[in-house]
Design a protein that fits this description.
Blueprint: E1 2-7, H1 11-23, E2 29-34, E3 46-49, E4 52-55, E5 61-62, H2 67-74, E6 81-83, E7 91-95, E8 98-101, E9 106-107, E10 110-111, H3 114-118, H4 125-132, H5 148-156, H6 158-173, H7 182-185, H8 187-196, H9 199-216, E11 230-233, H10 238-249, E12 254-257, E13 262-268, E14 271-276, E15 281-284, E16 286-289, H11 293-299, H12 305-312, E17 316-327, E18 339-341, E19 352-354, H13 356-359, E20 368-376, H14 388-403, E21 411-422, H15 428-440, E22 445-447, H16 457-477
Parallel strand pairs: 1-2, 1-16, 2-12, 7-18, 16-22
Antiparallel strand pairs: 3-4, 5-11, 6-11, 7-8, 9-10, 13-14, 14-15, 17-20, 17-21, 18-19, 19-20
Helix pairs in contact: 1-10, 1-16, 2-16, 5-6, 8-9, 11-12
Length: about 475
């Protein structure tokens, strides 16, 4: 029987295995998934303690990218979908030491409503006029890549970059707009400029047609769950991992192994040998590398030194999340939003904070609040190295300054994510085309994960489904 070995038991590896099983009967070939750690899930890790539900890594998926929700539905988790509490759907931006509301209608960085922008305390009058002037700025003449920083400065001005785009992007990608590729990270904005000549015009047009389509669509059935921009699962994102692993483990000819780090892969006479650090060898007809690009680079050295080198050029940054809970009565701040982001120019030690117990229900006991702070990223990578006590002290000081919280926390939890967030830097698309072509030339080898074709959970699932179909095609042909 043919065998596929999948290396990496994060969402990319697990969804590749699931997709293979969805499209092919269990008797067709064997799947062996090998995970380095003593748990599956990679960056996805939910903990429950003292009535709190704490997400160590991701806390939601973007509903606009449907693949995570579609997979969850196919796994029978549709009744577990949890929308955000949208009556509090506001984001704050720290500016001049105070929290200002991100003007309503600003979508990532593009203003779509005049009044909220005009009355915003976040942006100065010259900054507002400069943003509005975007409507008249000619579009870029060539299709070359540029940094997100250059793109936003060119279209919307420096203030929009410093106070809106940079902190929002750092809060999501932990990245630096001066090195991030706008084409790879925000292809939709590039498309808006190309098609409409203006981000504002393009976005307003897009929203109007979405509004029209929504009005034309039949009214949702009464019991249909609300879908908000960010969605999660009631019992946390680990529920997706737990469901995937338990369903896969019950499937014939499918073996999931944790605590099984792979040290190298070799290829001889069209067959692969996957070598584990334990000394065990596993033969395979196809190998899926669903580990981070730097780990894939190490494993591929003997198969293709050039590919290994190229994979190493995809940079990663480290981050940490610090979840911190207080008694509600001890927090005077109204917590009237989903949280805040911190521009680099503010020179603070946290990148962002989510007011988790406001954003989602079922995250904290009724008398408590749960806040999750983001540390590190391209701005302050060295802070990820702080020990737990120093990290918590630092976060308490930051929340004291920014939100006026002086109380002692009732719970703290630190998660470090070393070299976990791939960065799509300028030239990413060419780099990935080169990698894709090279991988396609090596029969039986596949790459998936957040380093290549989309950074979030949903895109990782989408690309793993593409890879699964390629493998089935390979087996059907041979
Ligand atoms: C703090 C944080 C917050 C985030 N928030 C969000 C969010 O809210 N929404 C969202 O969509 N995305 C978010 N992301 C991104 C999201 O986590 C990733 O897109 C997704 O989890 C990537 O999955 P993956 O399987 O590609 O990689 P990983 O989760 O990194 O999994 C790779 C796996 O490979 C294993 N591995 C490595 N080397 C070997 C080896 N030699 N042998 C065997 N196994 C190996 C690793 O142990 C790991 O389990 C966040 C990321 C972080 C770090």
């Amino acid at each position: 029987m043919k065998r596929v070995v999948i290396i990496g038991g994060g969402i990319a590896g697990l969804s590749a295995a699931w997709s293979l099983r969805e499209h092919c009967p269990a008797t067709g070939f064997e799947i062996v998934l090998l995970e380095r750690n003593d748990r599956f899930g990679g960056n996805i890790k939910t903990e429950r303690t003292q009535g709190f539900l704490i997400e160590g890594g991701p806390d939601c998926f973007l509903s606009e990218k449907p693949w995570a929700m579609e997979l969850s539905k196919r796994l029978g988790l549709a009744d577990k979908f949890l929308p955000t509490n949208d009556k509090n759907r506001k984001t704050f931006v720290l500016s001049g030491g105070a929290l200002h509301v991100l003007p309503e209608g600003v979508i990532l960085m593009v203003p779509t409503k005049i009044l909220p922008l005009a009355t915003s305390s976040l942006i100065s009058w010259p900054g507002k006029f400069r943003m509005a002037a975007e409507l008249f700025i000619p579009k870029k003449k060539d299709a070359s890549d540029e940094s997100l920083g250059d793109f936003v400065r060119r279209r919307l001005g420096k203030e929009a970059l410093d106070k809106i785009a940079e902190p929002l992007v750092a809060g999501v990608h932990a990245g630096d707009p001066e090195t991030m590729s706008v084409r790879a990270s925000f292809p939709k904005f590039v498309q808006l400029e190309e098609e409409s000549g203006s981000l504002i015009r393009g976005m307003v047009k897009k929203m109007a047609s979405m509004h029209k389509a929504r009005k034309a669509a039949p009214a949702p059935a009464g019991d249909r769950k609300r879908v908000t921009m960010f969605m999660t699962l009631r019992d946390g994102l680990s529920e997706l991992i737990d469901t995937l692993t338990s369903r896969l483990e019950k499937t014939e000819n499918t073996v999931l192994r944790k605590g099984a780090p792979v040290s190298s892969i070799e290829k001889k006479d069209g067959k692969y040998t996957v070598r584990l650090e334990s000394g065990e060898n596993i033969d395979a007809d196809a190998v899926v590398l669903a580990a981070p690009a730097w780990a894939a680079s190490n494993l591929l050295k003997s198969i293709d030194a050039g590919l290994s080198e190229k994979l190493r050029t995809i940079p990663y940054v480290s981050t940490a999340t610090v979840s911190i809970a207080f008694k509600k009565k001890d927090v005077k701040h109204p917590l009237n939003g989903f949280g805040f982001v911190v521009p680099k120019i503010e020179k603070r030690r946290i990148m962002a904070a989510t007011w988790t117990s406001v954003k989602f229900a079922h995250r904290a006991p009724d008398d408590s609040v749960l806040i999750r702070c983001f540390v590190g990223g391209s701005k302050n990578a060295e802070l990820v190295g702080l020990d737990d006590a120093a990290m918590v002290k630092m976060v308490k000081e930051e929340l004291g300054d920014i939100m006026g919280i002086q109380a002692e926390p009732i719970l703290t939890r630190v998660f470090r994510w070393k070299n976990s967030m791939p960065q799509y830097t300028i030239g990413h698309e060419e780099r990935i085309s080169w990698i894709d072509e090279r991988v396609a030339s090596i029969h039986g080898l596949y790459l998936t994960g957040s380093a290549y074709h989309g950074i979030g959970i949903s895109d990782s699932i989408r690309y793993s489904e593409v890879v699964a179909k390629k493998i089935i095609h390979q087996f059907e042909k041979s």
